[in-house]
Amino acid sequence: MRLDKFLAQSSGFSRKDVRKMLRAGEITLNGEEVRDPALHISEEDLICLDGMPLDPPGERYLMLYKPEGCVCSNDDSTHPTVLSLIDLPRADELAICGRLDVDTTGLVLVTSDGKWAHRVTSPKHKTGKVYLVETADPIPADAVEKFEKGLMLANEHFRTKPATLEILSDYEARVTLTEGRYHQVKRMFAALGNRVESLHRESIGAIQLDPDLELGEYRELTEEEVQSI
């Protein structure tokens, strides 16, 4: 890898800033000052910025507790974005795995690993997403069977894939989906003549929203959590 690319990916600085640091003698390679941005380096080389070692760039895997009023996009003119909550270098380059509506709270996974993101979101991998739902009207008992058989949504040509509905109380349920159609949970309840009042995602696959996270906070996934997808 070229030295300037390594520095940009490891530090979060732009290529322009990296070249300024090189010219100023702020970068060392194995203890020696270097100024050539095109220099090729290996995994064994020790690169330091102002005497501080830089870790090799690697894939990033995060969980975030999405608050209401925040959108799952890279840019929005009217709402804060999920990525704007992440105070890390090159956060705008991260991919959001399975978006939530602006008024939905809960677990959002964010990564730089495109293949991993695809495994999270692709229905072929049947990664279950679990939602806690509150409704405007009571949930009838036969809704369980209807969710299991799949529902026809408005303006759709195919039934939803089988989903699990666990009724917790008259107005509260837990829903598990293996696909992610537009506004799917809300539209499934609408197909039953009901309305979702609040929606919260609790988990994706084996990854549970960390109870220690506050709204808007995030943390890195553990190796076990990454490998669970």
- Classify the beta-strand content into a percent band: 25-35%
Oligomer: single chain
Structural class: alpha+beta
Which regions have little confidence, pLDDT < 50, spanning 5+ residues? none
Distance between the termini: 29 Å
Provide the succession of SSEs.
HHEEEEEEEHEHEEHEEEH
- How many beta strands in the DSSP annotation? 13
What does the main sheet amount to?
A: 9 strands, mixed
Please state the average pLDDT score. 92
Fraction of residues in helix: 10-25%
Number of helices: 6
Give a description of the structure.
This protein is of the alpha+beta class and 229 residues long. It contains six helices and 13 strands. It has helices spanning 3-11, 15-23, 114-121, 143-149, 184-191, 223-227; strands at residues 27-29, 32-33, 47-49, 52-53, 61-66, 95-97, 105-111, 129-135, 164-169, 172-177, 196-204, 207-208, 218-220. The longest helix has 9 residues, at 3-11. The chain is elongated and about 70 Å long. The two termini are 29 Å apart. The model has no long low-confidence stretch (mean pLDDT 92).
Descriptive key words:
229 residues, 20% helix, alpha+beta, 9-stranded mixed sheet, elongated
Q: How is this structure best summarized?
A:
By secondary structure, the protein is of the alpha+beta class. 20% of the residues lie in helices and 26% in strands.
Draw up the topology in text:
Elements: H1 3-11, H2 15-23, E1 27-29, E2 32-33, E3 47-49, E4 52-53, E5 61-66, E6 95-97, E7 105-111, H3 114-121, E8 129-135, H4 143-149, E9 164-169, E10 172-177, H5 184-191, E11 196-204, E12 207-208, E13 218-220, H6 223-227
Parallel strand pairs: 7-11
Antiparallel strand pairs: 1-2, 1-3, 3-4, 5-7, 5-13, 6-7, 8-10, 8-11, 9-10, 11-12
